[in-house]
Structure formats: C-alpha cells, structure tokens
Amino acid sequence: MTMATDQQRQSAPGETLAPSPAVAHHEGRRRARPRLWHHDYLHLRPLAADLRHVLGHARGEPRGAAEPWRILDLGCGASPYREFFPAALAAYVRVDLDSTASPEVIARGESLPFAEATFDGILATQVLQFTDEPQAVVAEIRRLTRPGGRVWLTCHGAWPREGTTPENRYGEPDLERLFSAFERVTVTAEGGYLGLPFALFNLAMREGVRAAERRFGRAALLLRLVAVPCFLAANLMGRLLERLAAAGPLRPFLAHLDRSLSMNYLVVAERGA
Ligand SMILES: C[S@@+](CC[C@H](N)C(=O)[O-])C[C@H]1O[C@@H](n2cnc3c(N)ncnc32)[C@H](O)[C@@H]1O
C-alpha cells in the first residue's frame, strides 16, 4: 500500500502536467452532471443516470440504516460518482494507481492491499478497460466484497480509444463470464447504436478543435463557440432517436437496432454468502 504525497503528485520532467485539483473537481462534476451541450453527453448521460439510480438505492441495505456502508472506489480518478451515495457512509476509500488522482491508497486493482471482505460495496467506473488482467481485478473485487455486499462496475463497449494507453473493450457475454462467481448479476447496456454516430461526430469535432488550437493557438479558441451548438444539435438528434427506440410506433423497428451495439455497460453484482 502506498499513500500519495504532495511530491508524488507533481509531474516528472517531460510528463504531462497533472490536472490541478480545481480542474479535476470540475471534470468530476461534469461527468456526474452531463449537459446537452457537452461533447460526450450521449455517452455520459446514461452512465450517470443509471449510477445515480443504483447507488442511491444502496442506502442502508443490506446492513440496515444503523450500519452505514464501507465503500471502495477503485480506479477512482476524480471520484465523480461519490455524491450519488447516501451521505452517511462508514468509509469511502479512494484507490488509484495514479498519484495525481490524490487517492487515499495508491495501488493496482490486480492486487489490492486490503483484507478479505473489507468492503460492503465496491465501485469501479471506467477502469476495467485499462487492465490486461481483468480476471485478476474482478477476483480482487470479489475477495474484498463481504458476503451479501454489492459491486457496481462500468466499462466501455463500442467506443474509440483515446490517447496512446492500451484499452480493452467488453460486450455483455464477456462481462457475464467475468462475473460468473457472483450472484444476482445484471449487465445493463448504456447508450445504443442510434446515438453512437452522433456521439462519434461530437468526438471528432472536439478532436478537430483541439488540433486547431494546438496549430493556431488562441486564434482557434473561437472554434469552441462554433462547436458547442454542433454538440447540442447532435445530442438532441441522438436523444430523439433513443426516445423513438424506447417508446412509440417506431419502437419495434428501432429498439432491436439500438440494442445491437452499446457504448458502455453497467454491471451490478452481489457476492454470495
Ligand atoms: C477513465 S479514468 C476513470 C476515473 C473515474 N473512475 C471515473 O469514472 O471518472 C480511469 C482511472 O483508472 C485508473 N487505473 C487504470 N488502471 C488501473 C489499475 N490497473 N488499477 C487501479 N487503477 C487504475 C487510472 O489511473 C484512472 O484514474
């Protein structure tokens, strides 16, 4: 187990500067409250909505309200979904391999420095795609969850890779296999085929604006003003199609297509006794 120090939070020469606490906080809030004018709204909206629902219902169960939960946030980053838990938790332990996230414990998900059954619930959002040993991470998550405890894990399905970090992608059968040692496993697809082209359009647009800013500096900042209405229009189109797939006369045609590809998945699982 390693505790982060201020010195470790500074970037080494040549590395990308770590985001300031204010920037990390802003990004966390943005992920928890995606807005229609954000480029990644179609990706983050269902993720935040589903997590708000399942984590909000974690209150007091199954230990009872008198015994609040001990939660582990694995691969915590800025812990954007911390606020979805009920306020009264016995502990909220933030773990990440990256010291710039200012976690309480610096460790890898593949081998975690806690005793068996330490936590009532484990949250691991958008981290599984970064490990080459997903079985090891899920086995550690199961080991640390007390019998009857809950796991909430999200990861990418169909989504482009960003940057140079290797990333894996998952489908429903992969996740069901990975969680086969758990009980009451549900895998929920988030963000379907119909929204995907609009989400990709927004990603491409954002990359274009970034490239222009790198090339032309401040002169290209104006492009952000152009991009925002484009994000908004694409998000509205994506939402409209998602709603038509969910209800109305076109549902039989669109629902199947929408389910055939998913941007993201949410796994909720319980460790058996
Ligand atoms: C995309 S960020 C997600 C952060 C946060 N959970 C969220 O949903 O916004 C992925 C995080 O996982 C961390 N990470 C990547 N691989 C990891 C591993 N093997 N063990 C622990 N953390 C890891 C990264 O340092 C990063 O903070």
Would you summarize the structure shown here?
The protein is an alpha/beta fold and 273 residues long. Helix content is 38%, strand content 17%. The protein has a 7-stranded mixed beta sheet, with helices on both faces.
Detail the topology: elements first, then pairings.
Layout: H1 6-9, H2 21-32, H3 41-56, E1 70-74, E2 91-96, E3 105-106, E4 119-125, H4 134-144, E5 145-156, H5 172-178, E6 183-190, H6 196-216, H7 222-246, H8 251-259, E7 264-270
Parallel strand pairs: 1-2, 1-4, 2-3, 4-5
Antiparallel strand pairs: 5-7, 6-7
Explain what the structure shows:
The protein is of the alpha/beta class. The chain folds into two domains: 20-192 and 262-270, Rossmann fold (3-Layer(aba) Sandwich), CATH 3.40.50.150; 196-259, no CATH class. It is 38% helix and 17% strand. A seven-stranded mixed sheet has the order 3-2-1-4-5-7-6, sandwiched between helices. Strand 4 (119-125), helix 4 (134-144) and strand 5 (145-156) form a beta-alpha-beta unit. The two termini are 28 Å apart. The model is unreliable at 1-17 (pLDDT under 50). Bound molecules: S-adenosylmethionine. S-adenosylmethionine is lined by residues 31, 75-77, 80, 96-98, 101, 108-110, 125-127, 130-131.
Task: Please supply descriptive tags for the structure shown above.
binds S-adenosylmethionine, 7-stranded mixed beta sheet, alpha/beta, Rossmann fold, single chain, 38% helix, globular, 2 domains, 8 helices, 273 residues
